Give the backbone structure.
Amino acid sequence: MKIICVGDAGIDEYRNLSQSFVGGCSLNNAYHLTKDYNQLCQTSLFSPIGSDASAERVLSFCKKEGIEFLGKRYQGSTPSQIIEVLPSGEKQFISYHEGVFKDFSLSRDDLDLIENHDLVVTVVFDQNQKFFDSLYCEAESKFVIDFMDLSDFSYDLDFVESYLGKCQMAVIGFDHYDELMVLKVKKLAADYNRDFLLTFGAQGALFISEQNSQRVDAKKVEKVVDTTGAGDAFLSYFIGEYTVRGESVSRSLEVASEHAKKVVERLGCHAL
């Protein structure tokens, strides 16, 4: 099986800690899938990066971790995210700097490369929506789409619905369990015969398909250090277990939850 993670790779700048780490949702997904499933599937990363020192950090990280980087370099800055970690360990988003991502567009060669994979794992947020739309509309691929917390799109499930045509599984990360949202998602799953993976922070996660749903509690964490990248780890390990290994939903949720726990116990997305 060939999986390609398409989207953002860059630097997470921890403003209040004066530290930074290589990050980005798509890079995080590629990291986890490569780390623990490289014997069962070939995982690649496609992302535009710049010509700066941050790009060198991304490439060095990919080489060190064995991630196949299929992206492109452009003159300019590599994307970066400015965040703060609150005393509770929760990540607080401050700002996102697109860098070369802002004007990047996919060529036919890029699309051919992406289409040469069995599954595309990607993410959509406000600053990359133009890129995401071109990817979704032009690539004849099967998608797993991470809609994050939908805050960039007014928490509107109609936005999610508009992309369910090619989407095998839609992923949404809420900060708490919302019964009304869950009921709406269950209807979408039934109407479109699509899978949904919903996360609720400390309240666990829920997998919803056309015919059933299964929930997993969040693992007990002695001390939450940094929630950055926990959702990316959860998604990656769910894909690894459910899609790559062919494990049951319940087993896949348990493994994903355990690895998300490991991420929040340490600073940075990859400090495992």
